Amino acid sequence: MFNPRPFGWVSQYLSGYFFAYGVYLPFWALWFEGQGVSAADVGMLMGIGFATRCVANLVITPRIYRVESLLPALRWITFASSLFVAAHLLVEPNFTMLATVTILFNLSFGPMIPLSDSMANHYVNRGMLDYGRARLWGSIAFIVGSSAVGYIASLFGANAIVYTALAGFILAMLLSMRNPNPMPVSEQTTAQPRPKIISLLRDPSVIRFLVLISLIQGSHAAYYGFSSIYWKEAGYPESTIGYLWSLGVVSEVLLFAFSKRWFTGMSLRTLFIISSIGVVVRWGLTASTTEVAGLVMIQLLHGVTFAIAHIAAIQYIQKSDASKMVALQSLYNALPLGAFIAFMTAVSGWGYQLWGANVFWGMAVMGIVALFIRLDEPKSKITNINTATSLESN
């Protein structure tokens, strides 16, 4: 228990992290609203969070390059995340103070997943860990967190959202204090060179990839920032909203579980087309209805709009030259899943304040544009989809 095997350490740490993330992602906008923050400022604050995580993953994360540094780094950033979550309860609820704690929190929060994934990959490469099985516990914890906090907040009010997230981070921090057996030790005496990001940004095929995945994943910005507010305004309690978010993650997990059976032999172009069509249908439905049957369909489509696009993106990265893989992974997490969603979240806040649910039609248009972008994809077909097993982790 106090010196767990790699599977126990990684799966339990991810459970604490994703429990907290299952609270943060669906309900933080509701907490901001409960502090009297306007919809436009909620969008700005959520966008600042995404942008800060982007900067952290481009600047801070790559500097922790030795495997021996991963465990101390995870302990410190988990401790810092716990402190800065708690700080939300202590500051004055004005935009400047909320923006300050948002930046501090996301600077520490942003690197948690790439660093814990790096730790997992260290053990995977040594045959000590099945990443998919370990990662599954994080998915389950996300569902538990998003379901539980909705019920708790409906009983005790908006501040219960912060307290519940804090409980998840404290759990992750306590679990991180244990030493896995064996400890992560690098087999190399010198650090690997840092990936050359700038050179990739001059490659037209990489730019098309980043634009395409940005359109698909960026279309989720209004959903991340305002779906909970939208559904609450339609009369649904926090508990129901939590169940709806959990349903979306269940859809994603099931799609990952069966993706090898369903998608082997499909080209990346086909996967991106399926996901783009899903974007058009999902956000068009979101703008059109708040009926229960419609909401269930909308959330079941999360596997199509997020997971299939993620599968295709990971496969694109894996099929690129080995020298480009690390840099592409960094760009994927920092730009489409970070900076662009940050920008679109801010835009969505402005749009939601002006047009309400009609802002989701703008998200649907992004799927239409994505249909017309063609990648210079590898000729080989997808053969190992099961490697793409991660939730929204940016």
Automatic annotation (TrEMBL):
Subcellular location, record wording: Cell inner membrane
Q: Which SUPFAM superfamilies match?
A: MFS general substrate transporter (SSF103473)
Annotated ranges, domain Major facilitator superfamily associated: 17-361
Q: What topology does it adopt in the membrane?
A: Multi-pass membrane protein
Alphabetical UniProt keywords? Cell inner membrane, Cell membrane, Membrane, Transmembrane, Transmembrane helix, Transport
Pfam families, A to Z: MFS_1_like
The organism of origin for this protein:
Vibrio hippocampi
Q: What is the primary gene name for this protein?
A: hcaT
Q: Which residues form a coiled coil?
A: none
Task: Please give the Gene3D superfamilies that the UniProt record associates with this protein.
Answer: MFS general substrate transporter like domains (1.20.1250.20)
Q: What is this protein called?
A: 3-phenylpropionic acid transporter
